[in-house]
Amino acid sequence: MALRSYETLFILDPDVPEDDIDKELEKVREYIEKTKGDVVEFEKWGVRRLAYEINKKRQGFYVLMKFMADPSSIQDVESSFELDQNILRHIIVRREEQGNH
Q1: Which terminus of the chain faces fewer neighbouring Cβ atoms within 10 Å, N or C?
Q2: Residue 55: helix, strand or coil by DSSP?
């Protein structure tokens, strides 16, 4: 199983209480680790205005997360994102391999 480098940008519902943001991030970490992946780092970008309205929301809480995962597990991670009602949008992209991660 060769792990590859990925990153995901996801937008949480802005109505998620601030105290629950870390719980949401932990759920995402669990999605990745459940498929034998490993979260390398994450950045909370905070609440920002959306380019367009999503589910009647004009803002969202943005999070960038970098992780290592087996390519065959990405579909499972995608499915977990889609089932999470607090995640408005997400994207997962493969990062170019570099000498050090």
Answers
A1: N
A2: coil
